[in-house]
């Protein structure tokens, strides 16, 4: 690593290219993965690491990450114990474990998932030409350099398919666990592809956690929703502080399909989520919510691009950030209403709660409208805890610390309350409370 | 119980309360009346410890302790309760959970066992019946979207749960229709006993038809200009506040 860093990480690409050469030699990915990896590394070379003014990275400084010399995780240390620690009550028999980027049937238990839910590795799934084609098209059109890095190194992943007209009761928990390494930083590239058939409904919970730190989990997740299907999605970022946690979620919504995502961030050294959503046919609905609770030097960044591509679709986003101490959050969201997407309904709201003078929250809500009969709103607020509310609670005997913690939790509650899996919501409430209490003690 | 001596207090450097002295004993109900801007609300806020208000002179002793030295939560735990003129809406904080936290803070202070939600629920049901409140308000966010009357009832409910030694009810009657007023007054009457005391702060006499004070004080321009029994309230109702001028020192 050079001792002085220039403002742009130009040149840092060579670290990834070196690693890629080694990867091809050692891992010898089979086709079609090798072809996809090569196509993706070419995308990477074109896209390059972001310069500070890059419009997908307005508030994210990826310089340190770009200059870190990663190794690929070879020896996974993930066992049943750590899996057990992270499984939510009610998900014990519907848990799919992706350990260091690889789907591990031996650590998973899918016995509560009905037979209409097909689970396999991506290696098996690519035998279907449609899936191989989807992956190739996605890689060719990738605009996010970190997702391109994922594409350059992946040679497996998890494939989930829900057959048409299936009502899946048990929430499918996808657990990403990274081993980390004390000796050198490691990178893993999990990839999940989920296809939900017509008239089906499924709850998917995704959790990112780590055994140790010092890792870069760089995942992509694609959701394809067919006509009139519904996905209730909860995404939990709970990596240890000494990690980089990046994800790109891509959602394709067909006619009358609905996707409701709740994204919860605990923050880490650098957490970033890129949500790319395409409302492709009329009547599709997106609801995307998020809450981050950050302390210390934690960071969590959201980039949202919602593409309204058909008439009569609706999208609503509500993100809340609680930033304390020297933490940092950002929200950069654009809603793009394409020509012809008439009668679009779109709302976007970001609320930031600042608990200290050193904390930092950036918001950039944005609308790009190319149709003339639409209803779109966007807004952003920044504030502190309300003095009158604090006094009210104090006047009933609650200490300043208790009152602050209660009000901060209540700020997060409107998002946590949207989570459709009660055990997950109550676990998250507990984690957030602990985080807030540690601070206000 | 409460002894206020020559209290001067105000808001952002402006003196609003200009020398009030008042003694409240156990078992007494005091009404403080006065026109708008006379300092009624400032007095209630300074007693409860609102951070935006400051004492500029004088002393306040409550149960032998210097009240002005205590933080708002300590005052509450000592037994002071302020019924707000405008109860604050706190979205996302569950009404029942909040009440239990407040109740348990008091229990912890008294070295008693804290209650779990189930046990507390029994107490809450009983108190809600007492103040005529629909149980559905347990699961709502604290005061959020409550009507004016329900907000005031919720204040009396909190008072019933916390059982303060001294309750200061700041314009609890304002904005209530006659039915709500009766319910609120009824709740207050059921909570009064020989061991506690109440200060009713009000602009109108009509609350005093339902809650009978032992003493009535008239506040004007930051001073108590007249004290008497409940007949004073009737005079005020008949003649308004204009006939009262501050007593020269």
Detailed description of the structure:
The complex is a heterodimer of chains A (441) and B (249). Chain A has 441 residues and is α/β, with parallel strands linked by helices. Chain A has two domains: 71-387, no CATH class; 388-441, no CATH class. Helix content of chain A is 25%, strand content 37%. Chain A has helices at 13-27, 33-47, 63-66, 80-86, 122-125, 129-140, 145-153, 387-394, 400-416, 422-440, and strands at 71-72, 95-99, 102-103, 117-121, 158-162, 172-178, 186-188, 191-196, 201-210, 215-225, 230-237, 243-253, 258-265, 270-279, 285-294, 299-308, 314-323, 328-337, 345-354, 360-369, 375-383. In chain A, the strands form two sheets. In chain A, strands 1, 4, 5, 7, 8, 10, 12, 14, 16, 18 and 20 form an eleven-stranded mixed beta sheet that branches. In chain A, helix 1 packs antiparallel against helix 2 (33-47), helix 2 (33-47) runs parallel beside helix 6 (129-140) and helix 8 crosses helix 9. Chain A is globular. The two termini of chain A are 40 Å apart. The relative contact order of chain A is 0.09. Chain B is of the alpha/beta class. Chain B has a single domain (2-239), classed as P-loop containing nucleotide triphosphate hydrolases (Rossmann fold, 3-Layer(aba) Sandwich), CATH 3.40.50.300. Helices cover 33% and strands 29% of the residues of chain B. Chain B has seven helices and twelve strands. Chain B has helices at residues 40-48, 72-78, 95-109, 117-130, 148-162, 178-191, 231-239; strands at 2-11, 14-24, 29-33, 53-62, 65-66, 80-83, 90-94, 141-142, 166-170, 197-202, 215-220, 223-228. In chain B, the strands form three sheets. In chain B, strands 6-9-10-3-11-12 form a six-stranded mixed beta sheet, sandwiched between helices. In chain B, strands 2-1-4-5 form a four-stranded antiparallel beta sheet. Chain B has a two-stranded antiparallel sheet with strand order 7-8. The relative contact order of chain B is 0.18. The model of chain B has no long low-confidence stretch (mean pLDDT 90). Classes of the chains: A alpha/beta (441), B alpha/beta (249). The A-B interface holds A 386-389, 391-400, 402-403, 406-407, 409-414 and B 48-52, 71-73, 75-77, 81-82, 84, 87-88, 90-93, 98, 101-102, 105-106, 109, 141, 158, 162.
């Amino acid at each position: 690593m050079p001792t002085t860093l220039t403002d742009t990480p130009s040149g840092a690409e060579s670290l990834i290219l070196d690693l890629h050469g080694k990867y091809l030699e050692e891992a010898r990915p089979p086709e079609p993965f090798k072809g996809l990896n090569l196509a993706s590394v070419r995308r990477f070379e074109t896209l390059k690491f972001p310069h500070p003014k890059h419009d997908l990275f307005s508030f994210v400084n990826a310089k340190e990450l770009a200059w870190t010399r990663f190794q690929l995780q070879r020896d996974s240390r993930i066992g049943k114990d750590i899996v057990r620690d992270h499984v939510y009550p009610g998900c014990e028999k519907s848990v799919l474990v992706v350990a260091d980027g690889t789907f591990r049937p031996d650590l998973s238990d899918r016995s509560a998932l009905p037979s209409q839910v097909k689970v396999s590795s991506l290696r098996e799934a690519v035998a279907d030409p449609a899936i191989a084609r989807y992956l190739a098209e996605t890689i060719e059109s990738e605009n996010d350099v970190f997702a391109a890095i994922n594409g350059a190194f992946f040679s497996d992943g998890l494939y989930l398919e829900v057959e048409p007209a299936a009502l899946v009761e048990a929430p499918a928990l996808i657990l990403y666990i990274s081993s980390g390494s004390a000796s050198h930083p490691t990178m893993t590239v999990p990839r999940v592809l989920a296809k939900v058939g017509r008239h089906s409904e499924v709850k998917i919970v995704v959790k990112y956690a780590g055994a140790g730190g010092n890792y870069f989990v760089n995942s992509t997740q694609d959701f394809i929703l067919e006509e009139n299907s519904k996905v209730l999605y909860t995404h939990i970022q709970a990596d240890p502080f000494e990690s980089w946690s990046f994800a790109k979620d891509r959602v394709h919504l067909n006619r009358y399909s609905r996707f409701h995502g709740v994204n919860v961030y605990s923050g880490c050294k650098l957490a970033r989520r890129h949500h790319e959503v395409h409302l492709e046919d009329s009547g599709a609905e997106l609801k995307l919510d998020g809450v981050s609770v950050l302390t210390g030097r934690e960071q969590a960044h959201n980039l949202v691009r919602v593409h309204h591509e058909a008439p009569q679709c609706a999208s609503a986003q509500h993100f809340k950030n609680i930033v304390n101490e020297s933490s940092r959050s950002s929200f950069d969201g654009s809603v793009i209403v394409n020509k012809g997407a008439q009668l679009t309904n779109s709302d976007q709201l970001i609320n930031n709660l600042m608990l200290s003078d050193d904390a930092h929250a950036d918001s950039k809500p944005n609308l790009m409208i190319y149709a003339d009969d639409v209803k779109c709103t966007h807004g952003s607020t920044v504030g502190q805890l309300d003095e009158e509310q604090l006094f009210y609670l104090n006047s009933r005997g609650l200490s300043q610390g208790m009152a602050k913690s209660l009000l901060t939790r209540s700020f997060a509650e409107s998002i946590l309350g949207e989570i459709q899996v009660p055990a997950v919501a109550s676990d998250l409430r507990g984690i957030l409370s602990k985080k807030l209490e540690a601070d206000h003690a | 119980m409460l002894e206020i001596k020559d209290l001067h207090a105000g808001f952002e450097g402006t003196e609003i309360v200009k020398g009030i002295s008042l003694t409240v004993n156990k078992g007494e109900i005091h009404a403080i009346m006065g026109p708008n801007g006379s300092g009624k609300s400032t007095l209630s806020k300074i007693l409860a410890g609102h951070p935006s208000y400051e004492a500029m002179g004088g002393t306040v002793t409550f149960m032998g302790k210097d009240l002005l030295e205590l933080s708002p939560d300590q005052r509450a735990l000592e037994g002071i309760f302020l019924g707000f003129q405008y109860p604050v809406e706190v979205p996302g904080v569950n009404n029942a959970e909040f009440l239990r936290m407040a109740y348990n803070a008091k229990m912890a202070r008294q070295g008693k066992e804290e209650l779990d939600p189930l046990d507390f629920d029994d107490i809450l049901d009983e108190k809600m019946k007492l103040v005529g409140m629909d149980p559905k308000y347990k699961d709502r966010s604290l005061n959020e979207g409550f009507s004016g009357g329900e907000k005031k009832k919720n204040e009396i409910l909190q008072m019933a749960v916390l059982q303060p030694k001294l309750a200061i009810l700041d314009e609890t009657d304002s904005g209530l229709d006659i039915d709500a007023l009766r319910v609120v007054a009824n709740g207050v009457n059921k909570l009064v006993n020989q061991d506690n005391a109440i200060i009713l702060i009000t602009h109108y006499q009509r609350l005093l038809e339902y809650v009978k004070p032992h003493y009535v004080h008239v506040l004007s321009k930051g001073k108590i200009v007249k004290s008497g029994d409940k007949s004073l309230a009737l005079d005020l109702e008949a003649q308004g506040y204009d006939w009262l001028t501050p007593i020269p020192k």
